[in-house]
Amino acid sequence: MPPLPIPEHPPVAWYLILSAILFGLGVAGFLFRRNIITVFMSIELMLNAVNLSFIAFSYQLKQVSGHIFTFFVMVVAAAEAAVGLAIILTIYKNKSTLEVDEINSLNN
Amino acid sequence: MTAFYTGTDHFAVLPALLLALFGCAVLLFEFVLPVGMASRRALAALTLAGEGFTAYSLYRQHSYLSSQGWPALTAFQGAVTIDGLALAFNWMFLAAAGLAALISYRYLETEGEHSGEYYGLLLFAQFGMFFLASGTDLIVQFTGLETMALSFYVLVGFLRGRRRSNEAALKYFVLGVLSSGLILYGFSVLYGISGSTKLSAVAGAVAGRGAGDPLIWLAVATLGAGLFFKIAAAPFHMWAPDAYDGGPTPVVAYLSVASKAAAFVLLLRLFLGPLAAAREAWQGLTVMVALASLAVGTIAALSQDNVKRLLAYSSIAHGGYVLLGLVAGNARGLQGIVVYLLTYVFMNTGAFLVLVLLRRGEAEGNHIDDLSGLMRRSPAAAVLMLLFLLSLGGLPPSSGFIAKYYIFLALVESGHYALAAVGAIFAAAGLYYYFRLVKTMFGGRELAGEPLAASMGTRVAMVSTAVVTLGLGLYPEPLLQLALLPVKP
Amino acid sequence: MIDTALFYVFALMTLGGGILCITRRNAVHAAIWLIASLMGVAGLFLLQRAEFLFAVQIVLYIGGIMVLFLFVIMLINLDTAAAERQYSGQWKLALGAVVLAGGEIAWVMARGLPGLGAAAAVQDGGEGGSDGNVERLADLLFSEYLLPFEIVSILLLAAIVGSVFLARRRTS
Questions:
Q1: Which residues of chain B neighbour A63 with C-beta distances below 8 Å?
Q2: Domain A34-99 class, CATH top level
Q3: Degrees to nearest 5, angle at CA B443 with B437 and B449
Q4: pTM of this prediction?
Q5: What is the ipTM of this complex?
Q6: Dihedral sign (CA B321, B326, B327, B331)
Q7: Which domains does chain C have, with CATH numbers?
Q8: What is the three-class DSSP state of A35?
Q9: Facing residue for C1 by CB, picked from A6, A56, A58
């Protein structure tokens, strides 16, 4: 039987394309969903896509700087999640809906 | 063994170090001091002391560099660069933060949310901005950006009991994180093509690939989108009117000048640094965004009755003018950008300052009718507001005129005659909504209410913003000297 | 061969988890699918020899951030939200725009990648005797990237102070 045309190791391009698709998914969730918590989760997807991208470039270039960048991105993501969820809690305490479209008392 | 924290490193980041120190000190003292008015006054004073020390360290950097003939001082193996551009913007951030601290005191007392965390976050935001102005490494810039952004998300939502403030914070947060994600994606592409996080290495890689490369195009597109969100340039401006309307007025003043300037310096560091070789990729995009900002800002402000939203849209338009300075692409353009942003710090903060004065009792002070008859109620406030509105509109003898003049001069000198003409038309159209406010102040029926009293801090802020706005308009020499910093060799 | 098979497994986890996360009605379900997606990403990190980040992803992202998400979801009790309309009206248009943008980015990546082979030389941090992933990371983190490390400490302080301030019960 001839050898299957499956590569030994996945080329870096696959990781980068996967990261691009994941980033797209994150943006899609951000645009579509009305529930604010799900919008937050889409943002986390986007940040993970960027992390994947950094690691992929780092792997190709045989460096560790990309890992360091990813490390910092994770720290920032944690801080942002904390602040964002705190903001959601303050909104929830003052009114009980989480629909993005209904949060419009500021509109003219 | 290489030393990783040398004397030069210390000298370079000393202002940021002081800001962090005073921020922590404010938080610590709030915990230690007894609850009461005197303690709050002490915390405000501590913040201003911190600004003073930071000003001194910036002054030391300034005089050292000018005595050496303006070399670019690099620190941390090239991650931080103190040059003319960094100094000019760091002075701007200092002015904005100092003014914000001065005008916040009475406002927060009225709102009942006066606590030390406010001053701490104000200082931490300035800390982050320092690294945007002087950072020449992608990681340093990113962490500085996020420190500033996170502090601002909380500051905008600071009036915890008010729904409007909560919603403003949410809208600002959501779009802020999206833009950070976009900027980060652009950074990842820049890292990927160069193998390094230092801007100098990225510049080499970009120059090697040229502007037509698809990866460069991708980096420009994502970075541009993210940065234009941060600047609140159309069509990425959606968060600004809501955030400006709902946030506490002193925070909005700080946000509108400092955060915008910080985003601009990041834009300048990237687009005039590593991406300078790829100018064809971003020139067209920037022109369109600048024109869209002018159009949206001017047209939407024409029909606004809420003064804070009006100032938000005018802010969007001002961003457009500054972007035109970038489009011009010559040294005069960069000079114009610095002049514009510096005068903008004072005149915009001044306008918001008058709004802060109007906040008393139940009156919010945000609606145009709250300005009605201000001339009779408090002539000083009305005259000041007149001065700031004139400056925002770009009329002589205010510093706003000098700013617009430089931008248009830069456009004409680089051959962009059509853009200069369009800009002038929008500037003229913008005068309409500023004059609408003036007319209400001087002509409307007078509102009942006691005359406006100002705290000591607010009075100092009033005097300084007025002096700078009028003074630099009459005698622009010091301003121009400062503006020449970024273009020194 | 094994590497490629594992890549497919983890990629499926990542994308599948992602898609399911953004389409679930129930917020808790969405959070669980996001956890699955993050596990997939962690696996991909491990495949690319980023052992330290594999561990950090699981401990920090899944064990920290997602647990925080779940706490807040439970606190807010989103049963009522699950009954409300979930998708914006123009979803078809938005879907088209996103597919277009995502496809363009993927195409750009695929086209621009061959040029990446000739990138900068291998960079080693400091004295370079160590070979392990964690050692090399630590070398760089405390030498060349010391400044961002310190900046992030202030960032975390600001985030902690800010989120506690916003979320705590008002005493006045």
A1: 195
A2: mainly alpha
A3: 90
A4: 0.90
A5: 0.91
A6: positive
A7: 1-81 (1.20.120.1200), 130-172 (no CATH)
A8: strand
A9: A6
